[in-house]
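Weekly modeling sync, notes
Attendees: S.R. (lead), two postdocs, one rotation student

Agenda item 3: backlog of single-chain predictions. S.R. asked that every request posted to the team notebook include the full sequence so nobody has to chase files. The rotation student volunteered to paste the first one in as an example of the format we agreed on. Action items at the bottom.

Example entry:
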Amino acid sequence: MPRVRILLADPNASMLAMVAEMLRDEFDVVGAVHTGADAVRDVCTSTPDLLILSVWLGDMTGFEAAQRLQASGCKTKLLYLSLHEGEAFVNAAFENGASGYVFKSQAGSDLLKAIRVVANGGVFRPKPTSSDLDCATAQPA
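Predicted structure, as returned to the notebook:
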């Protein structure tokens, strides 16, 4: 089976380097970019199987980049890797075509698993955080 081809998009260079290192033994990282415009361009030219992107890409949101990719007819799957752990961000990602969402705080335990799930046609949703659970169980005053 061919290795999954992945493009990384995050404005943080150290995050890109860390994720690329984490993936290199199992996946082919075909590029790493810092902006949404570069992500859209490189997905269109290198046609990776998967784009791992941040919610914020400097020049646009990851959601805007996803919309541009969808409008172009791109079939690359989207997996968000984000600091934003609120349910609203997770839902927005899936509403904009994501197949997966991983919190950066859980990347060590969830990222490789999420890539495998998404690459095989599945959907990966993060486990609720304690703050989400607190909000979900809070009783109105």
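Discussion: group reviewed the output briefly. The longest helix spans residues 107-119.
Action items: rotation student to repeat for the remaining queue; S.R. to check formatting next week.
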